[in-house]
What does this fold into?
Amino acid sequence: MKNVHLLLLVFGFAASMLFVGCGEDAGDTVNLGVIFPLSGPQAHFGVESSDGIILAAEEINRAGGLLGRQINLIIADDENIPANTMSNFIRLTTQDGVGIVMGSSTSGATSAIAPIAQDQGVVVISPSATAFGVTQFGDFIFRTCFIDVFQGIVGANFAFDGLGARRAAVLYDQGADYNRGLAHAFIAQFTERGGQIVSHQVYMSGAVDFSAQVTSIAAASPDVVFLPNFLNDVALQAMQLRAQGVTAPLLGGDGWDGVVNIAGPEIVGGLWSGSFSAETTEPMGIEFVRAFEARFGRTATQFAALGYDTMLLIADAIRRAGTTEPRAVRDALAATEADFVTGTIRFDENRNPIKGAVINEIQMRDGVLVNTYRTTVNP
It folds into this structure.
């Protein structure tokens, strides 16, 4: 059994490469590219997904690897800057000869490389790029997460049925595809169900003062406030909403993942949709949570689970294809239907996974904010 080592390379902050056995040539390894934000504001998502992929690759290597070869992960940091995503992609596919790339975390960064990946016949699969258009670039582009529209619909149905809400306020970053996509889907579904949007508020990326929007929301007396934003913004918005007396439940999407690490008690009772809960009762999920905590010393998030599944999806496709040739891997990946940590996954005609969404509720336990499993909403 060959040993698995981690080599830290510097790309701005840092990128890491998982390699197997010194002195082995490229013919002895399956080289896979990985591009994530490992530094910058979105580093939480990238580090979690990268660690999930590393864990899966180490497990596969210990079990004998793929097609008799060990996995060699070449991991690069794009800082969630699309230009960096592109430069890393070019390096991986030209200098390193990679034909399969996992990443990036966000829709904007992934969309930067999707057209050239399609033109070059390179398989790209993102664990967490949820915007609808990401996979529309062509049949080499996949994702492990569900799309924004599905999350928005899930949020609206849960607000209407699970919370009994009939009056909703929405506050979102209008300059971000993810935020805007969730918001528009929520608004459309909630109103179709018979609900009313009593306050429709927007802001631009980088804002920290939401007092004007919060004042309008407070005046509208909503039954629920939908915040389809990323964790840093959500932590500030929860604090400002509660400070102005808004007591309605706060609801969001998977951009909330990690908010328990930075928010105050104002976020207690908040609810958000995601792909995975560490409180899973499924045997495969339980084993993953145990292994992730043993390997990295922290509780697995949904982004770690999505990264883990992304590696498993690629490995499964390579095994079934019997080769690492990208076109064959693409065809095998499209035909996937199997159980993974985040659920049973099969792909639709646009290479989007068909699977359920978990609703997490934030609670305070022994003075610490934690995500707890509330329910699962199936497609």
About this structure: The CA atoms of residues 100 and 123 lie 5 Å apart. DSSP finds ten helices and 17 strands in the chain.
